Amino acid sequence: MSVPIDAEVDGTISGRQHLPAAGRWPLGVRLPRSLADFDRRGFRTDRPDARELLEGHAQAFIAGFDLASSRWSHVHEALADVPAFERGFAYEGAAMYAALRDAATFGRAQALAHVLRDAGDGYAHLVHVGYGWGLGPLRSGWFPRLPDTPLLRWLALDGAGFCHAFFGGLPAVRRLAAAPATLVREARLAGCGRALWFIEAADVRSVAAAIAGVPASAQRSLWAGVGLAVAYAGGAVGADLDDLADLGSRHRPGFGQGVLFGAAARARAGIVPPYTNAVCVRVLGIDAHEAGRLADRASADLGSPGSLADFLEWKTRLQHAVADVLDSRGA
User: Fold this and answer.
1) Which of 117, 236, 279, 326 has the fewest CB atoms within 10 Å around its CB?
2) pLDDT (tens digit, 9 = 90+) per residue, 29-41?
């Protein structure tokens, strides 16, 4: 069921307030809240509004991990207490915990399938991204068989890319951007682009400068990640949206594809913040629900469960769709 764009939901957009407390799993697996502190991470701290918003998302991620650790058997009930706008980030954190649980049992725990059940299906995009967070630090060759969720499974690589940049900063982004071009690299670069939005505290010009400083072959994927972050996490308002359209004009199809992904993820959960709709209207001229439907239609005839090549083909189709939309608007 579609939820109105301006629907009131519980909690706050910032996610700093009213996050449920979590206990400890018997093995003591828990993430410290300091992991989300922009100052400790070396991220930009001179943009207080953006910092509060984005740092709040990171705190929701940590809350989700800790809730999964302490209330695994009833994880969906636990996550339902997270404020609605932040619940996707909490599911992302819970999925990171699921990845560690699967890794510890070589997949026998079927932890990812557990998180994707029931209400988790509405957060499938974020769940797969979060699973990639868990696999990124393991540095092992083992990769579990993912559930038969067509194409979205490959968002785990996006999550691994985000993790890579979140902890490694701009140097990590530059290293990956300079690596030989492969399908895996392209998927991970999008995650790095999302992380840039956090690292630079939604400073449009600093993000653009960082992307301009890497090889051209990496720039479109990075802009796609920025688009997803802008649409899903927010932080761009007013003139920022105009700056994004101008600064990303060379890679607007990639940026727009990321916006479509972010809108589709929000629409699937039925909880669409006003800023997501504002980005879709400004960049694409359509609302968030139509953007989500466009993303779904573009994947209709691709393989199931879908290869990585299919996933990247989906992105390419969406980039062409964005170019068509922009051409029709004379943008």
Assistant:
1) 117
2) 789 999 999 999 9
